[in-house]
Amino acid sequence: METAEIEADELVILVVRAAKVMVERLRAERPDDGASPMTVVHGLAARYLVDRDDVTAVELARHLRITKQSASEVVALLEQSGIVRRAPHPRDGRARVLLLTDAGAAKLAEGRERWRCIENEWATLVGRENLNVTRRALEAYLDNDAACGTGR
Fold it and tell me: How many alpha carbons fall within 13 Å on the CB side of residue 116?
């Protein structure tokens, strides 16, 4: 294997490992000792609902790039945990929308504050501008992926 191939592989591995460490740390710092059935996907789902009142489970599945069945399971746990509630769709009488509850919004705010602390530590370690470059690079990659329609 050529050095360039190893380095390319290493970037993906580093991104995945760093994300895993940050999530594990966030879980370990939870007031309930991280004992929660919630996963990163549940957090991404709840975050997607912020300031939205017309998201259906089908749209959520598309956003998360998971199957409709998996999205239904995610929504069921979020609903059971009091983070989201279902309501009639404002324009389609057959559909239901997913709405973030007040408790869900409060939990997201707590989580964002804990993420902010981790991000600030990272910025102290590598410098805010380097972190901003990393952020822009990741956003560009995700935007390009969405524009190419390579997801489900």
Answer: 6
pTM: 0.78
Cα dist. 105→51, 89, 100 in Å? 10, 20, 6
The conformational region for residue 101 under phi > 0 = left, psi -120 to 50 = alpha, else beta, is beta
Residue from 55, 126, 61, 145 nearest 91 by CA: 55
pLDDT, tens digit (0-9, with 9 covering 90-100), for 65-114: 999 999 999 999 999 999 999 999 988 888 899 999 999 999 999 889 98
132 touches 119 (CB < 8 A): no
Which stretch of DSSP H or E encloses residue 100? Answer: strand 96-100
Please answer whether residues 43 and 93 qualify as being in contact, where contact means their C-beta atoms are separated by less than 8 angstroms: no
Q: pLDDT-based confidence at 44, cuts 50/70/90?
A: very high
